[in-house]
């Protein structure tokens, strides 16, 4: 007998105590409302009770005790802790379970947090065990769990569903990760600088378990440390700069730092501001790092023998997604006894990180922004580095938690590097979340991610490689991630659409969230846009806040700063979402310039359009713009840019008056009258 959806939902909720109705609906839809399959899975679930383990060892974690666990050294610590999540169950009722503390000797094996095989997603998230054998459903599940994916925003053209395409800047949260945090971590939350009460001990074990998991994911050895630190790679790089003591004049004079063209400001400014000698390695004709130039510089400084060589390079550009051959470059640097550091801020969510692929190709340090992993909002930066680098007597962030003792006159810092370099109360929840997102990445598998990334790159370039008006930055023939930066050219005006305007159009017309600007990679952007230093200095005068640094009568106009629009296609995005984004971008590349003629001072453009497809609606709006502009807008009222005549050639973007003139002239010549009928193309 067939049941209504409401009956099915109520029946499933009665079995699982799952009270979130919308989550139940989404879950049932994944199984095509086949309740019999779900009932079998739910009834086979055996809840597990967490057992806390304490040992003398610094390795800590949790394990789950089985029903025949004969441990006798247990004591109750709480009767009010929620039962940990079991498969497909996220209970929010008043049922509670008792958790036990198991004190064992250091000779007993400590089961690390998340210590099960990271090839499967079920070791931490048991309720997605069904996806262990098939990656595509797992990607769909991740996509369906992105927080906010079903939310809408109000725009001048009506309500639009949010479609996030700015993952390179920061990822979005995942429902199942937040459920894990809420049900497993937060009930036991306490500060980690004590292990003498159950909550502090459990929280410490979660955090240290996260550290251990990350080490395993990046193939770290006992020679490597993992340090949670501040805001993204920026904090990790600044931490290492402090550790290397480059602000000391003696150390600085004996050090040279090589950077690549790809670098984000975070991997330029911390080094530059110490005053150390910085050498920028240019690109070759393919748009990759020039190995010959690098080799010559390495040989020169190695043979001179006066300075320690540090190479700090980007594993993948956050502007173009172009990847660097990290193992070959690491090998080359070590052949000349240099240190090699890698900024994985843009690359880490998508590629394998191997700290020790071989002795000569080992990485001396890597910098990671875990907030860029899906599920990673609020996760900290991570510095993974060789212990040999930490010769500093005083920690970079000395303070609480870094000392054995402090008297009125003396201080003794702890010897453990990870402890001494994480001063103060850490971002505890973020550190635990960092381990979860690394685990999820490993569960999906780097091969799966990279294969999908390659397919998305190919799909994008198959459509836009030779596009007439959309110019993609960076080579299309080298290995790259699904990160794309572009400009849109308006041939009839011989100017570009401003990147901010493109960003707003994608938001208002389609709900697509992208980024505009230079993505904090100024020098690389100047290379990509083919702007020489002299021209760059002119643009800098328009942007600088210091009036004394401006040329003549140049006003401060931040719009003059060159830039681009950037988006990325996420590996877990559906083909439908990808096509929607690409269709929207192609529409902007073709018709976006027309919308520059519209402003808030004119009567609203009424469309009377009935369409559920924002792309089709945008096309219909664009077709109405010429007549609307001709009948309603006077270009003489448009305020021109306040730029001296001698600098008007530096205006690189179209302004409303340009577009209005173009539309009016074309309409007068071609569009003031339309034919009374048009043949049916379907016959």
TrEMBL record:
InterPro entries noted in UniProt: Aminotrans_V_dom, PyrdxlP-dep_Trfase, PyrdxlP-dep_Trfase_major, PyrdxlP-dep_Trfase_small
Pfam families reported for this sequence: Aminotran_5
Record-annotated Aminotransferase class V domain positions: 184-525
This protein's name: Aminotransferase class V domain-containing protein
Species of provenance: Rotaria magnacalcarata
């Amino acid at each position: 007998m067939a049941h209504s959806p409401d009956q099915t939902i109520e029946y499933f909720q009665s079995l699982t105590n799952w009270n979130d109705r919308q989550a139940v609906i989404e879950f049932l839809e994944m199984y095509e409302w086949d309740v019999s399959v779900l009932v079998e899975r739910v009834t086979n679930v055996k809840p597990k009770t967490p057992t806390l383990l304490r040992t003398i060892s610094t390795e800590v974690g949790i394990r789950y005790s089985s029903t025949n666990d004969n441990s006798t050294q247990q004591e109750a610590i709480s009767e009010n802790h929620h039962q940990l999540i079991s498969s497909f169950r996220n209970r929010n009722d008043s049922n509670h379970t008792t958790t036990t503390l198991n004190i064992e000797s250091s000779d007993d094996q400590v089961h690390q947090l998340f210590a099960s095989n990271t090839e499967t997603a079920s070791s931490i998230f048991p309720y997605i065990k069904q996806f262990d054998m098939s990656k595509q459903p797992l990607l769909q599940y991740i996509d369906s769990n992105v927080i906010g994916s079903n939310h809408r925003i109000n725009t001048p053209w009506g309500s639009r569903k949010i479609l996030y395409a700015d993952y390179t800047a920061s990822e979005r949260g995942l429902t199942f990760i937040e459920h894990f945090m809420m049900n497993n971590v937060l009930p036991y939350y306490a500060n980690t600088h004590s292990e003498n009460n159950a909550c502090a001990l459990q929280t410490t074990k979660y955090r240290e378990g996260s550290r251990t998991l990350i080490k395993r994911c990046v193939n770290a050895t006992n020679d490597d440390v993992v340090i949670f630190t501040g805001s993204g790679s920026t904090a990790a790089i600044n931490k290492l700069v402090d550790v290397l003591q480059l602000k000391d004049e003696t150390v600085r004079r004996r050090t040279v730092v090589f950077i690549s063209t790809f670098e984000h400001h975070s991997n330029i400014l911390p080094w530059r501001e110490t005053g150390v000698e910085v050498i920028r390695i240019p690109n070759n004709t393919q748009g990759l790092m020039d190995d010959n130039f690098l080799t010559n510089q390495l040989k020169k400084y190695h043979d001179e023998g006066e300075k320690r060589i540090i190479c700090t390079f980007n594993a993948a550009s956050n502007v173009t997604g172009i990847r660097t051959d990290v193992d070959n470059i690491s090998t080359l640097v070590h052949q000349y006894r240099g240190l090699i550091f890698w900024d994985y801020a843009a690359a880490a969510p998508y590629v394998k990180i191997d700290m020790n692929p071989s002795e000569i190709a080992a990485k001396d340090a890597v910098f990671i922004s875990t907030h860029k992993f899906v599920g990673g909002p609020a996760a900290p930066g991570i510095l993974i580095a060789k212990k040999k680098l930490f010769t500093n007597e005083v920690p970079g962030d000395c303070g609480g938690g870094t000392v054995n003792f402090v008297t009125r006159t003396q201080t003794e810092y702890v010897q453990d590097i990870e402890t001494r370099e994480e001063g103060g109360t850490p971002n505890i929840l973020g550190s635990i979340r960092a381990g979860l997102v690394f685990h999820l990445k490993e569960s999906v598998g780097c091969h799966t991610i990279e294969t999908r990334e390659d397919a998305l790159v190919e799909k994008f370039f198959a459509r836009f490689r030779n596009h007439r008006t959309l110019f993609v930055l960076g080579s299309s023939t080298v290995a790259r991630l699904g990160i794309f930066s572009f400009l849109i050219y308006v041939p009839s005006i011989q100017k570009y659409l401003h990147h901010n305007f493109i960003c707003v159009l994608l938001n208002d017309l389609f709900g697509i969230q992208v980024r505009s600007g230079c993505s904090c990679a100024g020098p690389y952007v100047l290379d990509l846009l083919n702007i020489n230093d002299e021209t760059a200095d002119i643009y800098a005068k328009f942007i600088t806040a210091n009036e004394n640094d401006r040329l003549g009568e140049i006003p401060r106009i931040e719009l003059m700063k060159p830039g681009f629009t950037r988006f990325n296609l996420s590996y877990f995005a559906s083909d439908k979402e990808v096509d929607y984004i690409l269709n929207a971008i192609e529409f902007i590349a073709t018709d976006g310039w027309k919308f520059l003629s519209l402003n808030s001072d004119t009567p609203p453009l009424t469309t009377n359009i009935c369409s559920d497809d924002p792309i089709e609606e945008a096309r219909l709006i664009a077709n109405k713009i010429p007549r609307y502009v001709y009948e309603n807008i006077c270009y003489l009222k448009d305020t021109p840019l306040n730029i001296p005549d001698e600098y008007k050639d530096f205006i690189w973007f179209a302004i409303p008056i340009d577009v209005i003139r173009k539309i009016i002239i074309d309409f007068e010549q071609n569009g003031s009258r339309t034919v009374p009928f048009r043949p049916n193309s379907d016959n």
